[in-house]
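ARCHIVE CARD
CATEGORY: sequence design from structure
SOURCE FIELD: tokenized fold
FIELD CONTENT:
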């Protein structure tokens, strides 16, 4: 499903999670404590699973090639490990902003090195790290990944045709009558499927925000 969630966030029939798009702060706090220990490989695998997709998409959106984006993620993870000793969570969204600052610095370093080694090549000039468009880009990737994770949970909870109807109508924006025809459903069943899945996604996001559930 990937970045179809960007369209989902912006669409007329789209989904806007209550309480913003912050990934569970309680879960983050626990995970950040664990990854302070470089030998806790399971914690780092969990961190990578949760945050790699949004970091890769951010780097790609900044104009990087896939291989370079992977390098940036690795460098960002190293920066997180080094910075954890001085990082202190102060408010909701603090980790999101801190992680964006680290990855944006790595992106800027990448473009600067390219300019230095390829002086005759026109390279995209990196914008200041506090530039609103970049903050918006990062927040959108964050929201999209949170929605993806929650939707994958819901996919395992509902019938396949229910989730298929939700994806086709709510995410892809296809007309409800066309979805009903393709899936052999009644029109009202498509609307019910959309409502049911979106409601469950909201519930999961609220549970994450309250620290009642881990991202697994």
């Amino acid at each position: 499903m990937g970045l179809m969630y960007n369209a989902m966030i912006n669409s007329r029939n789209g989904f806007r999670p209550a309480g913003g798009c912050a990934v569970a702060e309680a879960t983050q706090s626990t995970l950040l404590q664990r990854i302070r220990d470089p030998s806790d490989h399971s914690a780092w695998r969990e961190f990578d699973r949760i945050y790699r997709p949004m970091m890769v998409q951010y780097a790609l959106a900044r104009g990087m090639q896939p291989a370079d984006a992977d390098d940036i993620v690795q460098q960002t993870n190293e920066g997180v490990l080094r910075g954890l000793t001085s990082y202190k969570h102060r408010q909701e969204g603090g980790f999101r902003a801190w992680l964006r600052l680290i990855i944006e610095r790595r992106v800027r370093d990448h473009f600067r090195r390219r300019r230095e080694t390829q002086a005759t090549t026109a390279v995209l000039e990196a914008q200041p790290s506090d530039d609103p468009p970049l903050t918006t880009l990062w927040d959108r990737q964050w929201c999209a990944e949170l929605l993806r994770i929650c939707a994958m949970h819901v996919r395992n909870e509902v019938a396949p045709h229910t989730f298929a109807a939700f994806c086709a109508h709510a995410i892809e924006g296809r007309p409800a009558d066309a979805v009903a025809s393709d899936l052999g459903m009644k029109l009202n069943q498509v609307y019910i499927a959309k409502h049911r899945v979106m409601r469950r996604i909201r519930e999961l996001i609220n549970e994450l925000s309250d620290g009642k559930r881990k991202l697994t």
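CARD ANNOTATION: The first helix runs from residue 4 to 10. DSSP finds nine helices and no strands in the chain.
SHELF: design records, drawer C
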